[in-house]
Design brief:
N-(1-d-carboxylethyl)-l-norvaline Dehydrogenase, domain 2; 14 strands; single chain; Rossmann fold; about 425 residues; alpha/beta
Length: about 425
């Protein structure tokens, strides 16, 4: 039976290892952090993902956590899977993955293969010195914060970078991939590394299309939510396209890929001006909530009290990296804020006048306005009438349409969202 190892028990490694173990493989999960491994062994996980705790518990003894590097020596396939941190300019810090690879190489079995799972820039895998190319692969990760378990256990395809795409995959590696019953796409290292970036570029393009045209809807009296079904029924676009407007590009991965291609373009003289346009559009849309709250409230009452629901960059995750919510909060330093997030602490906002609240309704007490800046599922279950009753003011900014639009209007809320003009008559130009 194939034994699979994973080195690096942060978000990517933990979720991916858990998915492999769920397919019946004995899975050795290594991390040099002894305290982290101890917590994992006791079922205390460092990340929040729907279904992850239950799946780890269900895997039981098939999934072993260890800080003993030698335990990877029993594995037929060893994934290198630490999260890759990025800075504010979208540059990746590959120091940790290089250190992990250097540590794993001496204990790798003579016939075992190493698979780089962390996202790296094109050229990374081929430039590695060991193991030899025939025992070295790159696999495109499928991590999506908040949907990581779903994506890892039900992948739509596997993209695999190889030294020779025409050669059969190592049988143990192939057995792991085949267990998920999805297409396997072998290609050269550089193609696979760029494929991940290409996917993210398509996501960015969809986000920018939605944001650009949703703003047009606001100006002319159209409703973007009415247009989306027409686009999803167009076979050239598809029902799964990312067509929801929001507060720009968030998280770390998409901006990192944009920055990577800009650097490649600068080095090789290719045109990447569209990338600059995407980033500019993202920054413009990200600041929608800050612009609106200043115009509608803070311009005349700088010290008004504002309830903020959501601090993380998206729902179902603990990550606040490049969070539009935190970017909005940073632009209203004089306002009094009542903050709620199901996972992130109020301290993540680093706001001098920010107060954490235990529940969403508690955050509304005395609030002149509400901004719903992360579309957590639990916020959708709160009726607009409850919101209207709990808060002092009536202004609600809900860029992701968490609330029912009709219900918000009927509750007497001054409801603002993306992609839809207000209910007042519009003066057409």
């Amino acid at each position: 039976m194939t034994v699979v190892g994973f080195a690096g028990m942060t978000h990517l490694g933990l979720v991916s290892a858990t998915a492999v173990a769920s397919r019946g493989f004995r899975t050795v999960c290594y991390d040099p952090n002894v305290e982290l491994v101890g917590n994992l062994s006791r079922g205390k996980l460092p990340v929040i993902e729907p279904g992850l705790d239950d799946l780890v518990a269900k895997n039981g003894e098939r999934q072993v956590f260890t800080s003993n590097l030698a335990d990877l020596g029993q594995c037929d396939v060893v994934y290198i899977a630490p999260d890759i941190p990025t800075d504010d300019q979208g540059r990746s810090d590959t120091g940790a993955i290089h250190r992990l690879i250097d540590a794993v190489k001496p204990v790798l079995g003579a016939q075992a293969v190493m698979v780089v799972l962390s996202q790296v820039e094109p050229g990374f895998t081929r430039a590695l010195v060991a193991p030899e190319p025939a025992r070295r692969y790159y696999q495109v990760e499928t991590l999506v914060f908040g949907r990581a378990v779903e994506r890892a256990t039900e992948p739509e395809r596997y993209i695999v970078g190889c030294a020779d795409p025409s050669a059969p995959l190592n049988p143990h590696f192939h057995a792991v991939l085949a267990a998920f019953n999805c297409p396997i796409l072998p290609m050269r290292y550089e193609s696979a590394e760029l494929a991940k970036i290409s996917i993210n570029f398509c996501l960015v393009s969809s986000i920018s299309v939605a944001n650009t045209l949703a703003e047009v809807c606001e100006a002319i009296g159209a409703d973007w939510s009415e247009i989306v079904p027409a686009l999803k029924l167009d076979r050239r676009i598809g029902q799964f396209s990312y067509l929801a407007p929001g507060l720009g590009i968030a998280g770390g991965n998409l901006e990192r890929d944009l920055a990577t291609v800009q650097r490649i373009g600068a080095a090789h003289g290719t045109d990447t001006t569209v990338v600059a346009a995407w980033k500019s559009n993202s920054r413009h849309r990200r600041d929608w909530a800050a612009r609106t709250i200043k115009r509608e409230l803070l311009g005349r009452r700088p010290d008004a009290t504002i309830a903020v629901w959501g601090l993380t960059y998206k729902e179902n995750t603990h990550s606040v990296k490049n969070s539009p919510s935190l970017a909005t909060i940073a632009q209203i330093p004089d306002a009094r804020l009542r903050l709620h997030d199901p996972v992130a602490p109020a301290s993540a906002a680093a706001h001098a006048k920010g107060e954490g609240c235990a529940t969403p309704l508690e955050a509304l007490s005395g609030a002149d306005a509400l901004m719903i800046l992360t579309p957590w599922p639990q916020y959708r279950s709160i009726a607009p009438a409850e919101i209207a009753k709990a808060m002092a003011g009536r202004l609600v900014l809900d860029p992701y349409r968490v609330l029912d639009t009709k219900g918000a209007t009927e509750a007497g809320l001054d409801y603002r969202t993306l992609g839809r003009a207000g209910d007042a008559p519009l003066g057409m130009p």
